[in-house]
Amino acid sequence: MNLSIIALVLLGTFLFCFLVQLYFTLFVHLKLARFSVPEVSPAAAGPVTVIICARNEAENLEANLPAILTQDYPDFEVVVVNDRSWDGTKEVLRAFEAQYSNLKVVTVPETARYIAGKKFAVTMGIKAAKHEWLVFTDADCKPESSNWLMGMQQPEDAAVEIVLGYSPYTRTGGLLNALIRFETFFTAVNYLSFAIKGMPYMGVGRNMAYKKALFFKNKGFATHMHIPSGDDDLFVNANAHAGNTAIQIHPDTFMHTDPKRTWGAYLKQKKRHFGAGKMYKARHKFILSAQIIVQFLFYVLLTAMFCLRETQLIAAGLFILSILIRALVYPRLLIKLGYPGLRWWFPLLDILLFIFLVFNGILSIFVKKVQWK
Questions:
Q1: pTM of the prediction?
Q2: Per residue in 189-221, is it b (16+ CB within 10 Å) or e — as a string?
Q3: What is the CATH code of the structural domain delimited by 48-276?
């Protein structure tokens, strides 16, 4: 077959994108698919402090806090930081304090001399913690089981200072919910896989743990206190490395979270996350940007090749091969990470997620102001 110069350029670039896409699938994400999940330890290694920051979370605290306060763990406390709430959070926490001796409430006063934002609340919670090993989650999260803390405790390997957990979103039905869960799945696949590969770059504050000493040794959030988000991923990005980071994805340790219910709320949430990503280390930004750019070019070039009669069959063949290879990995991971129902919609959701990420990236250029709660 004699191809024109334009067709050859399109084909060469498309083939390059195809190979890069396969690299991430087969040499990064497949590591997580093959990861052997050990059973949760039946014994506690040491005392633990759970830290939750709450701003106007009265309803969520009533629904979720008991499952955390009653974990099957012999020695732990729960520190809840009430960050200037006005919805009855104070009264809810006061009632829980009378019922549970392992609950400690810290209050951020409503005064101009205090720094607003979640990072300040997290810092207050860490300072109030009496134990070295800190486990973090949010008020709208509920653990899968009473073994959550047993799985998120300090590992036997003393070198481990950070444990990255997993927090899937609850299924509620509808396209938005499916997209949120699929996007969360791919985010988790990426950061968990790279952690296994020896290059941890982020974690999710809904379910992660680290040592108090690590926080203070590296001056907490000092380098990115001006960023509204990043109390989780930016801290991990700055302090995690191959020797001090482990992952925990046993189903008993999943921390379930209620997703956003409207497109506007979800876009606002993703805007905060996008802002934090700008502060990642250069090599991490390069790799993550390459993933998005290659995926974008893959679909753009695929469309262009379908417009040329001489490259239509080649484009179709490579696209089908890409889907088949990826379908051997990602549906397996969807089952492993608690989303078995989404595996049947994998090809469609993959395309929809790409469209959403491009749209969100463009929107983030024009929408600058974001805040926590």
A1: 0.90
A2: bbbbbbbbeebbbbbbbbbbbbbbebbeeeebb
A3: 3.90.550.10
